[in-house]
Amino acid sequence: MTAATHSTLFPQVPESADAVLDGLDPEQREVALALHGPVCVLAGAGTGKTRAITHRIAYGVRAGILQSGSVLAVTFTNRAAGEMRGRLRQLGAGGVQARTFHSAALRQLQYFWPKVVGGDLPRLLERKVQLVAEAAARCRVRLDRNELRDVTSEIEWAKVTQTVPADYPAVVAKSVREAPRDPAEISQIYAMYEELKRDRSVIDFEDVLLLTVGILQDRHDIADQIRRQYQHFVVDEYQDVSPLQQRLLDLWLGDRDSLCVVGDASQTIYSFTGATPDHLLNFRTRHPNATVVKLVRDYRSTPQVVHLANGLLSQARGRAAEHRLELISQRDPGPDPAYSEYADEPAEAEGTARRIRDLIAAGVPAGEIAVLYRINAQSEVYEQALADAGVPYQLRGAERFFERQEVREAGIALRGAARAGGNDSLLDDAEDLPSQVRAVLSTKGWTTEPPAGSGAVRDRWESLAALVRLAEDFARARSGATLSDLVAELDERAAAQHAPTVQGVTLASLHAAKGLEWDAVFLVGLTEGMMPITYAKTDEQVEEERRLLYVGVTRARLHLTLSWALSRSPGGRPSRRPTRFLKGLRPGSGALGAGTGGAGGSSGAGSLERGLGGGKRKRRGPVLCRVCGATLTEAGEMKLMRCEDCPSDMDEALYERLRDWRGDRAKELGQPAYCVFTDKTLMAIAERVPTTGGELAGIAGVGARKLDRFGADVLALCAGEEPGEGGGGVDEET
Question: Are 289 and 38 spatial neighbours (Cβ–Cβ below 8 Å)?
Answer without folding.
Answer: yes
